[in-house]
Amino acid sequence: MGIFDSIKKAIFGEAKAGTAGGASTASVGSATATQQVDVAPILDKAVKDTGQNLAWKTSIVDLLKALKIDSSLTARKELAHELGYTGSTDDSATMNVWLHKAVIKKLSENGGKVPADLLD
Questions:
Q1: For residue 28, what are the contacts with CB-CB under 8 A and spacing of at least 6?
Q2: Which of 63, 61, 69, 59 is nearest to 47 (CA)?
Q3: What is the pTM of this model?
Q4: What is the pLDDT of residues 80-97, one digit of tens each?
Q5: Buried b (16+ CB within 10 A) or exposed e, 80-104
């Protein structure tokens, strides 16, 4: 499973946690496709649960930390590769900005309802 899949599972899995019964991966996927998941409250709760002051709306590192996903430079480079980043991964600041936008966009494309101000 790739890093973006882990992000999706952490967010969409959390949204489906309240549903009755043991849903299979296939049914969770189809439910995600037909029903939008409000991403902001899930991430806000994840941040609160960490007890840290994390800025998930602006920082890919904080977004990953909130979801308890590896936020190391190596993991972020892997995520950048997964999502098709073509810039230099040596310029981590530029890569991080791109990654954050790409992850938010991909969440939106995969059934996530994200705050409009985070979509360009």
A1: 12, 13, 16
A2: 63
A3: 0.83
A4: 999 999 999 999 999 999
A5: beebebeeeeeeeeebbebbbebbb
Query: What tokens were used for 19?
Result: 């549903």
Residue 20 tokens, joined: 């009755």
**Residue that is written with structure tokens 């930390």 in the block:** 65
Distance between alpha carbon 66 and the CA centroid of its chain, in Å? 10
Domain limits, the chain: 3-118
Write the DSSP string, 16-77. Answer: HTTSSS---HHHHHHHHHHS-EEHHHHHHHHHHHHTS---TTT-HHHHHHHTT---SHHHHH
Residue closest to 5 by CA, chosen among 28, 22, 35, 38: 28
